[in-house]
Design a protein that fits this description.
6-stranded mixed beta sheet; alpha+beta; 397 residues; 34% helix
Length: 397
Amino acid sequence: MCSGGSAMAPRSSGPEAGRMSDVLAALVRASEKAANIARACRQEALLFQLLIEEKKEEDKNKKFVTDFKTLADVLVQEAIKHDIGQQFPDLKEYIFGEESNEFTNGLGQKICVKICETEKETAKLLSLVLDGNEEAASALASAAHQSAGELELDTGHTEIPPSMLGVWVDPIDSTFQYIKGIGDSVARGGVHSQGLQCVTVLIGAYLLHSGMPVMGVVNQPFAAQDPNTKRWTGQYFWGLSFEDVKLNSLQTTPDPLVDSTHLSAVLSSGEAPSVREQLGMACGEDIHYAAGAGYKCLCVIRGLVDVYVFSEDTTFKWDCCGPHAILCSLGGGMVDLKESLRRRREGTSDQCAELLYNAPVAGAHGVDRWANAGGLVAFRSCAHLERVLCVLSSLPC
């Protein structure tokens, strides 16, 4: 990226402290603007043509900086960073995302995509990326500068200085489904295996000193489609988990009487055969497969399944921070699968190896520095986590 702080380095705390509700409301508003941009790119005819256009390497315009789907991702990310940073200057350099915002055009010019002070300035900048396509640049700039509306959340009087926080952003999770644009996916047990319903915007805040997630938003831009107009509407879910405060938009509280004798799970279609086999025996017909890490987390958050299990190392901090915070507010969480299994086999008293968000993977490079290297389990209750670890460790239940 062109600029930014360290995801694990606390900075000096300024005098400004804000209610958790103010910061959380800013995250929700930013996610709504992001969802609006994502929908605009699919629903505006001009932008949609750019989005779905597939160019062969030899046919690409050498002056065209990047493919449009990457620009859509970056613009969503930069809109989130801009809006949150404007309201909370202490957070501005501590908002981290999946995408780099720096592009190099055919003339060798480096262009940092950002949200400018005015819509006209943003459009001018985007036209450099879009090879002078001013109409498309203007449409994108309009979506990026559109207000997401007012929003107030009441989370009590809990206060936390923004200087204590870092933020992870995944601007458009499940980009492949976003580009394919399947709108008629049929859900089984409420779970979509593919389609625009699997696309999410993910924003999570964590404590810099501990790495624990404290606030999260999962926005589903394409939750429902009007059969007549074909226009999509979205929905969002938020959660707050800080010290003794546990609140969320699902209007539910942790249930201490969870029956773990039966288990339902959602997995990736690319999951390891051994994991699929073991969980398949434990779950029977209540095992689902779906696209998108964020969407699979959302299935757990909404109670459509008990757990999301992924044994590979190809999810990242930006995929999990927001959903993790919501799960914590529900009495659940998200752990490192391999580390939790290791602790269980060794009889360690604390077998819950919670994912943390402030430190990179030792010895890793590039994006792998922020991978969930040991895989993960997302769960609504500790009883469900215990059941999963029992099944996968091949220990007597």
